[in-house]
Amino acid sequence: MWRATEMTAVDDHRMTQIFQNLEVPEGVKVELLRGNIVMMATPDLVHNEIVESVQDQIPRPAWMRLQTQDITIPGEASEPVPDLVVLPRDARPESGPPPSGVIATVIEVVSKTSVDHDYGIKRSIYAAGKVPAYLIIDPIVAHCVLLTQPVGVGDEADYRTQQITKFGEPLPLPLLGLELDTSEFGTFKGVRPHHRP
Question: Is 11 exposed, middle or buried (0-12, 13-18, 19+ CB in 10 A)?
C-alpha cells in the first residue's frame, strides 16, 4: 500500500523536470508542492462521494467542475492537483493546466494522510496563486473551512477570512452563486480527530 512520501528538493527547477517526467503507478496521486514531490494512495469511497456531491451541486452551464486537474501557479515550484477545480466555462484555457488566475474555487477533501498538506502548504500555495476561494471539506472532523480573500506572496501568502461550517449546515458559496448542501457528506469512522481549524 502506498503512503504519502516526500522528496525534498535542492533545486526547484530540477524537481519540476523530474516531476514532469515521473512515471506514476496506477492508483497513486502525485503533486508537486513547493519543490516536494508528494505521492498518495488514491482516495476512498467517503472522499469520492463528497467530491461527487459537490460537483453535482455546481451548475454545469456556468462552471467547469474538473476533478483531479492539475493547475499552474505563477512564481511557484508547485503543480497541485485539487480534488475539484471550479472555473467559469468561458475562462477555459486552450490547452494545458488552467492557471490559478482563471480559477474561481479549489476544493480539497481531507483524507486520512492529507491533513497537514490541505490545511498547511496548499492553503499558502492557493493564496499565493490568488485563487479567490479555497474550500477544505474535512470528513475527519465533519466540517468545512471556506477561505477567501488571498493576500501575500510565496510562503507568507494566506487567506484573510475563514468560515467554518459543520456538516449538515448549509454552506454559502457566494463566488459561485449557490449554497452548498452538506447534509449528505460522510465521515471517516475510527480516525483520530486532528486539531486544525
Answer: exposed
DSSP for 149-178, please give it. EEE--GGG-EEEEEEEEETTS-EEEGGGTE
**Quick one: 181 exposed, middle or buried, by C-beta within 10 A (0-12, 13-18, 19+)?**
middle
Least confident of 14-23, 47-56, 125-134: 14-23
Judge whether 174 and 154 are in contact, CB under 8 Å.
no
What pTM was computed for the model? 0.83
Q: What is the pLDDT of residue 21?
A: 59
pLDDT class of 84 with cuts at 50, 70, 90: very high
